[in-house]
Amino acid sequence: MSEERIEFHIKESGEITWSTSGFHGDTCVKEAERVMQAIGGTVIEEKKKPEYYEDGDNPVSVLQQ
Amino acid sequence: MSNWLRARVSTQIKNPKRSLFDKACEEMGYKPDYTVKEVHGAYSFDESRPVDCVLRSLATGKVTTIGFHFNRNEKKEVILSVTGDFFMMPYDGETFMKRLAMHYTHVQLCETLEEQGYTIEESRIKEDEIVLVGARMAA
């Protein structure tokens, strides 16, 4: 079993940055939606970390002939 | 899969949950006292304003010159506002409320993470930023 980690930086200005690691599939995106809903936050910007593209659980696969 | 995102929350506290509001105040070194219904000036005890609660210092137990109102707006939301004398305080009322909102978001996030099965591994409070790390074993 792998470990899922979330790190938040909460600023006095109301800005929050969130960084995750160890998630599989799109669970980190769903987790972000759930947490933001709980605290009434609005997402301003989102990026996928390099691990996103290395993850074998990516639901999109391309077959090359 | 991992991601990074930037979000914004309001620096105005709406519909505060009493338990979280109390915890946020405690992180700042205060305890709300709901039995005291007026706040006095720092140097003029005769000058007072009605409030819904006042803050006591956790260090001394003394009532401070900071109080709060829980008022409903036209949308029926409860809006937290501060009434106080910030003379000789390290911050003004606006900065105080922004900092309180930051602590309120922190305790909200701690509660949400724990509900989702995370363990709080780190909770580092700096003056104008809080770092929070949660971890759990993947299902």
Molecular structure report:
The complex is a heterodimer of chains A (65) and B (139). Chain A contains 2 helices and 3 strands. By secondary structure, chain A is of the alpha+beta class. In chain A, a hairpin with a 3-residue loop joins strand 1 and strand 2. Chain B has one domain. Chain B has helices at 18-27, 93-115; strands spanning 3-8, 30-33, 38-40, 48-50, 53-57, 63-72, 78-84, 119-125, 129-137. Chain B starts with a strand and ends with a strand. Chain B contains 2 helices and 9 strands. In chain B, helix 1 (18-27) packs across helix 2 (93-115). Classes of the chains: A alpha+beta (65), B alpha+beta (139).
Key traits:
heterodimer, A: 65 residues, alpha+beta, two-stranded antiparallel sheet, 2 helices, 3 strands, globular, disordered C terminus, B: 139 residues, four-stranded antiparallel sheet, 24% helix
What's the layout of helices and strands?
The complex is a heterodimer of chains A (65) and B (139).
Chain A: E1 3-11, E2 15-21, H1 27-39, E3 42-48, H2 50-54
Antiparallel strand pairs in A: 1-2
Chain B: E1 3-8, H1 18-27, E2 30-33, E3 38-40, E4 48-50, E5 53-57, E6 63-72, E7 78-84, H2 93-115, E8 119-125, E9 129-137
Antiparallel strand pairs in B: 2-5, 3-4, 5-6, 6-7, 8-9
Helix pairs in contact in B: 1-2
**SS-based class of chain A:** alpha+beta
Average pLDDT taken over every residue of chain A: 77
Helical region count of chain A? Answer: 2
Sum up the overall morphology of chain A in one term: globular
Q: How confident overall, as mean pLDDT of chain B?
A: 91
Give the neighbour order of strands across the main sheet of chain A. 1-2
The percent range for helix content of chain B is 10-25%
Main sheet: strands, sense, barrel of chain A: 2 strands, antiparallel
Low-confidence stretches of chain B: none
